[in-house]
Amino acid sequence: MTSSNPWRRRIAAVTGLVLAATTLAGAPAAAEGPEQIVNGTFDNGHAPWWATGNLTLDSSSGQLCADVPGGTVNPWDAIIGQDNIPLVAGETYEFRFFGTATPARVGKALIQLPVDPYTQYLSATPELSVSGNDYTYTFTSPVDLPNAQVAFQIGGSATAWRICLDNISLQGGAEPEEYVPDTGPRVRVNQVGYLLHGPKNATLVTDATTPLPWQLKNATGAVVARGKTTPRGVDASSGQNVQTISLSYGRKGTGYTLVADGETSRPFDIGTDFYEQLRLDALKFYYTQRSGVAIDDALRPGYGRPAGHVGVAPNLGDTDVPCQPGVCDYRLDVAGGWYDAGDHGKYVVNGGISVHQLMSEYERSAHTGQVRTLRDGTLALPESGNRVPDILDEARFEQEFLLKMQVPAGQPYAGMAHHKIHDAAWTGLPLLPHLDPQPRELHRVSTAATLNLAATAAQAARVFKPYDKGFAARNLAAARTAFAAAKTNPALYADPADGVGGGAYNDDDVSDEFYWAAAELYITTGEREYRDAILASPLHTADIWRDRGFDWGHTAQLGRLELATLPNKLPDRSRVRASVVAGADRYLATARAHPYGIPYAPAENTYDWGSNNLVLNNAVVLAAAYDLTGRDRYRDGVLETMDYVFGRNALNQSYVTGYGEVASHNQHSRWYARQLNPDLPNPPRGTLSGGPNSSIQDPVAQQKLQGCAPQFCYIDDIESWSTNELTINWNAPLAWIAAFVADQDQG
Ligand code: 9MR
């Protein structure tokens, strides 16, 4: 926040004079030059600043504040820091910040080597006061270092206190180096592998505009196939001139490479079984997202942790949560469910589509005779062995939470669902769930959340019926009540400004949620009320196949897909089925025109937040068309989509942790935060990154990716929350598609 307080400025001037005398001996006068600190003003959050686990960073006031606990011994027992600050040997830097302490304290401000022996290039001991001062120091760097650390060491106090920092700046040195991603060899392939009888396409980045020879080599380096590339011109999504390669080769093996234009691709396999593992990994992801239960290290080695948000200090817990002031005067037990993403929030609209896609994966498997692949015991869950398919055990864990979010009978808005529950203020990284000290609050009810509950509860009612009649009945009752409550309150929209401490997930068009909920209720009950709601909805016949795909805020597609693929007695069912095939034809045309083979080419050439999930959801439409028609071209479109996800893309990397030679592994998360703390794990194998996002809303992306072509608007950095987060709703289509592809066996 920029200070407009003249009093504060005056103090600053005086303090500056005093401190000039304390700067390092022999340092030249204050340096001019480029700014090396990312986001020192805290006008919009505090990424990429991090803190030790005993601090919760709070930038909601426009300054960076933290309550420092008492009872620590060393200065380094509590730290606020920023990494990756480039220093140039011989350059002089000016380091400034504004700071307060309540009560007053002496802190330590360091610019240092980030690893042992933590050599300090600047060490200052600012005397922080309650009213606050500006501090200025200069120093000359003795080293060239790409990754120095700014660290405020504030531990060592017997009693608790509060620190606030603002306008942190390190000026001088060289212009920060332009970020250029390491994209490796220019031949882009699916780094995991191609199915034996599926399509095998690759993309070559080249200046050449005429066909070039290519060679396929096996693991021993012998050429086993050859051909000519197809020039494709300049690809808008990457800005690259590209050519495509289509292999027709049918021998299983590992360690193949593709050679063209003097470049050798990363290695890949040709085979049958690599999606079987992804089918499981993409679903296993959900167990370690669970809130309210301890994660058993025996089930997920390296990922065990205490239960989060169960009311054990410093957590205030989700077992007895009040509403935001003025919203309600009751409290609810909303413990359980999955954490949404890298934050500790739980949101009904996003939980809704996620649990729906898991149940839909189950229903598809049941209808195609593949349900054994998701049977009891497949996902190493605490519930394994209970004779319920593990995928349903996992779905139930979330569905139980969604039911808890419904307003109880007798209260205002009874039957509606609260939109979300999350921290009162944003927290910093890393922060394990059980260490989150923020108060938790229920936010207002919304029509969208209520209809998500109606849809998923109606689906749960039919899916769980063979396994637990009581749970099925409870869901059906909740679904009916929710749908009726939404009809009574059809336009209670979440506030777009309600984004402090958690995402807003706002949506001011809920006609699509009405359509989806009516579809689920009709498929489950066959009742006239719901059929009439479907037939009366303009969305029932509208062209809903947007180029941008569907997601938590666009759910008409879920309703249409369900009505097309699940048994029901809708009078115009054949038209509904044909409309899904027509949508798939459109996505197929997009994929065929795309030199990276994806069914995603949004208008204006801008990629949305979480583009990978939109790409995959368009592939879900292709997969549904395959199930409806049996035509290979739709299945091939799905397989080509997975080529992109696994490395046939402009960045030459897989977006799924643990899959492919180079893969995302630093997704934004408060507990899989190995990039910030080596004692913590990376995200588990099978975690999808959100992927390229043209709007680059976070400071790391803004610093490094300005002007990016869509496919380049991505960085595998834990603080790039707008390009590299993990979420429950993005892993859901990954899991769905992984199961679909695994069912194709050899392609
Ligand atoms: O996935 C959400 C995306 O569609 C929205 O554009 C964005 C801004 O509202 O929010 C995304 O969701 C984030 C949520 O708000 C908080 N948890 C993490 C989610 C993924 O980044």
List strands and helices in order, with pairings.
Elements: H1 6-20, E1 50-51, E2 64-68, E3 79-87, E4 92-102, E5 105-106, E6 108-112, E7 120-124, E8 127-128, E9 133-140, E10 145-153, E11 161-172, E12 187-188, E13 193-195, E14 200-205, E15 213-217, E16 223-228, E17 230-235, E18 240-247, E19 253-260, E20 263-264, E21 268-271, H2 274-284, E22 321-322, E23 331-332, E24 346-347, H3 348-368, H4 390-404, E25 417-418, E26 420-423, E27 440-442, E28 445-446, H5 447-463, H6 469-488, H7 511-525, H8 528-536, H9 556-565, H10 573-593, H11 611-629, H12 632-645, H13 699-704, H14 728-743
Helix pairs in contact: 2-14, 3-4, 3-5, 3-14, 4-5, 5-6, 5-7, 6-7, 7-8, 7-9, 9-10, 10-11, 10-12, 11-12, 11-14
Q: Summed up, what is this model?
A:
It contains 14 helices and 28 strands.
